[in-house]
Amino acid sequence: MRFLTVLVSVAALFAFNASTVGVSAVLLDLDLGHILGLDFTERTHYNAPIEPWRNGASPGWYIGQHPERHPKLFCLVGIICKILDLFPGLPKCPKKPVPPKPTPTPTGTAPYPTPTLPADGYEQTFTNLTGATQGEGYLTFGLVDTIPDCKAFCDTVKGCIFANTYNDVNGKDGSTQLTCSLFSRCHDASTATNTGGQTQPDGSVNYIRNSNGWCKK
Ligand SMILES: *[C@@H]1O[C@H](CO)[C@@H](O)[C@H](O)[C@H]1NC(C)=O
User: Fold this and answer.
1) 79-98 pLDDT per residue, tens
2) Best substitution site from 128, 195, 207 to test ligand 1's pocket, by max atoms within 8 Å of Cβ?
3) Which top-level group of life is the source organism from (predicted)?
């Protein structure tokens, strides 16, 4: 209840005095941790402070259609998305995919260059490896339903230009969910060196499958 009160009073400040907007933003930022119940900022690598290749790492968030399957994870759905929308510097929930626009019919006679980039702006740097990226520029990692969700989330994370998607078999509490690991620099196959081998609490050992690299151009 207290936090609802805070939000309402901030809204009132916005309404009555535009010059207090800066101050209001600071008040909101200070209370974000209380509103969400965790520290979802750059400082904590968005709730995933330990790199995925280190012991003790656990995903900081889940993005997808089945939050009920991830009751222990911070799920970016519903009201959480609306709260994140209020904070300019923070990641956002990916929007539902927009159907592609019909390509305009070319006019004139000049030859048209073949587009060299996929529509989402990400170039694939490696495909279907058995190692996940272990390298510089780690930002955060979580679980996703789809590769497009991982890229769309990267688009909203400050500094993100590289996404590594993979299945961490036997890892992350036995989930076969796709892992989405984000970086501030692009990586190729040479740093896809985390092949698993971490013993899990239940005694099984994890391994990596279907690891793909996506560099934003
Ligand atoms: C990916 O690699 C595995 C071997 O690690 C292979 O069995 C599988 O067929 C490959 N998948 C694709 C889509 O190429």
Assistant:
1) 999 999 988 899 999 987 66
2) 128
3) Eukaryota
